[in-house]
Amino acid sequence: MVYPILVMAAIIERNNKFLITQREKNMHNALRWEFPGGKVDFGEDPRYSLEREIKEELDIEIQAENIFELSSHVYDKEKHIVLLACLCKFKSGKIKNHGINDYKWVTPKEMIDYDITEADLPFVKKLIEMKENGKTKNKTCIF
User: Which of 135, 142, 121, 133 is nearest to 20 (CA)?
Assistant: First the structure.
């Protein structure tokens, strides 16, 4: 039996822009853009796993906070990703490309110009809607 893969994504905002990262060329969804994050290991707290993955891949410190949104997508009829996005506070560090090809700080509307992975698209849509409606960070959680 094949099970879904639980993945965490970080929604990190600085100066009204959000961090997106480009996947490496040797990975599934090569050179496509996504919100940074990674898989939750068995028995690991999801928020801790997100903080760990961001430290490993980008060498920055974040604090994972409230759940922003949930997404589920099946790639190529064989890989089911359940993606849980958290609002995150940037704490410290300078981004280094340890597990990514590139990164950008962009507005939600600018994200449309990037080849965003399907699992991340609902987050882009929600960010665009929130900015258009003038909602603040404190009102963005689903629970």
Answer: 121
